[in-house]
Amino acid sequence: PTANIAVVGLAVMGSNLARNLASREGNTVAVYNRTTAKTDALLEAHPEAGFVKAATMQELADSLQTPRTAIVMVKAGRPTDAVIDELVSVFEPGDIIVDGGNALFTDTIRREQAVRETGIHFVGCGISGGEEGALNGPSLMPGGTPESYETLGPILRGIAAIAEGEPCVTHIGTDGAGHFVKMIHNGIEYADMQLIAEAYDLIRHATGKSPAEIADIFTEWNAGELESYLIEITAEVLRQVDATTGEPLVDVILDAAGAKGTGAWTVQTALDLGVPVSGIAEAVFARSLSSKPQQRAAGAALPGPSTPWSVQDPDAFVEDVRLALYASKVIAYSQGFDAIVQGAIDHDWQIDKGEVARIWRGGCIIRARFLNRITEAYAADQGLVALVTAPFFSDVMATAQDSWRRIVAGAAQSGIPVPAFASSLAYYDGLRAPRLPASLIQGQRDFFGAHTYRRIDAEGTFHTLWSGDRSEIAAEDTH
Ligand code: 6PG
Question: Where does the 6-phosphogluconate dehydrogenase C-terminal domain start and stop, copy by copy (predicted)?
Answer without folding.
Answer: 178-467
